[in-house]
Amino acid sequence: MVAAVVTRKRFQQRAETSEFEADVLEGLNAIPKHVPAKYFYDAAGSRLFERITELPEYYPTRCEMRILLRHAVDIANMIRSGAALVEFGSGSSRKARILLKAAATKLAAYVPVDICGEMIEQEAAELRTDFPQVKILPVTADICKPFKLPAEAKAAAARVGFFPGSTIGNFEPHEAAGFLRNAANILGRESTLIIGVDLIKSSDILNAAYNDAEGVTAQFNLNLLTRINHELGGTFQLDTFEHHAFYNRERHRVEMHLASLKRQKVKVAGDTIEFRAGETIHTENSYKYSIESLSALARGVGWLPVAVWIDSRKYFSIQSFKLAV
Ligand code: AVJ
After folding, report:
1. Which residues' Cβ are closer than 6 Å to ligand 1?
2. Distance (Å, rounded) from C-alpha 108 to C-alpha 133?
3. How far is Cα 256 from Cα 243, in angstroms, rounded to an integer?
4. Predicted confidence band at 324 (pLDDT cuts at 50, 70, 90)?
5. Which residues 6+ apart lie within 8 Å of 296 measured at CB?
6. pLDDT higher than threshold 70 for residue 15
7. CA 160–ligand 1 middle distance (angstroms)
8. How big is the chain by its Cα radius of gyration, in Å?
9. 62 Cα to the center of ligand 1, angstroms
10. Are 42 and 282 in contact (CB under 8 A)?
11. Which is it for the CA torsion 198, 203, 205, 208, positive or negative?
């Protein structure tokens, strides 16, 4: 039993590494060079992201927390008695705790879904102590792919999807539509979706949020190269690459890149990658939406807009939708 578990774990790790390797090699051999943003989040990257959320320039996390706290009662009103709350990419469940507190007596279950099984299992133990009346049913899954809800969540009176943090902004618009369609299929009839999304705003505020004075976002971006060096036998010299982040107004997205400061060759997993001076690796898109652009996207795949909550500066929004029947 124990041996089987260990073997599976090792296999999973190897499977993840080779997917990482395949994605990195494909992206670095493409024009323009790119690496998917989901690979930022190894242990060091997750810690750096936590530090980003506390930076004075990085407003999204604080804004969303403020909206959640101020409107917890209204937002909880979206939740029917006996419903199951399903969080996509739950991580530490910090934001869901606000909803759990506001709707504790109504919620039958909380289903945190995350690709990092270790994190949610650990978090689940704490949630069970803090919310003894709510069934805590963690699911380890990739939220972009179809997955099955636990039977108790399926049997609940209704299901409420929760996708905070403007994580939807990391998807290309067509992928975001795909995610919303997948969420509709997973949640099924009688479901509601509550999404936190960063709003389109002036370039100055956006550029500052992704170019903090302390350089933590630069470290977060460069950590991707450290991860490639460690896990894929990369030979990136970190001082020969520079963090670039800017708001692309036409495409409503903040782009992050790593720019090579010189012409050079780098080895990754036995492959040789050539860089021109100034050539970049595109590491992240963070799409910004308006209330209307998100609701148009959602409507397109069957979600009807119900309510919107925003902060006084109109920096961030929490939007709720109902599945059309
Ligand atoms: C976690 C994807 C919402 O796009 O703002 C923060 C990630 N990147 N600083 C974002 C991020 C650079 C963040 N999301």
Report:
1. 52, 60, 165-167, 169-170, 210, 217, 284, 286
2. 8
3. 7
4. confident
5. none
6. no
7. 24
8. 20
9. 13
10. no
11. positive
